[in-house]
Fold this sequence. Notes:
Blueprint: H1 2-5, H2 7-25, H3 41-44, H4 58-63
Amino acid sequence: MNIAKNMEAIFVAAIVVASATTFATAAVSEPAAPVVAVAKAEATAMPTVTVSAKRLTAAEKAAL
């Protein structure tokens, strides 16, 4: 089992690859202007549901 003997080298190689990709993808660029979305107050209100029905009696529940 050569893999078991070389696990430290495999681990170090994986860390090196992960570090390299981290630096490669961390490109420094000028910050973009923030996008601000303005929503109307009507659209941000939480929708509510009103249920106007009578409750079932015990007999009606048992029938179901």
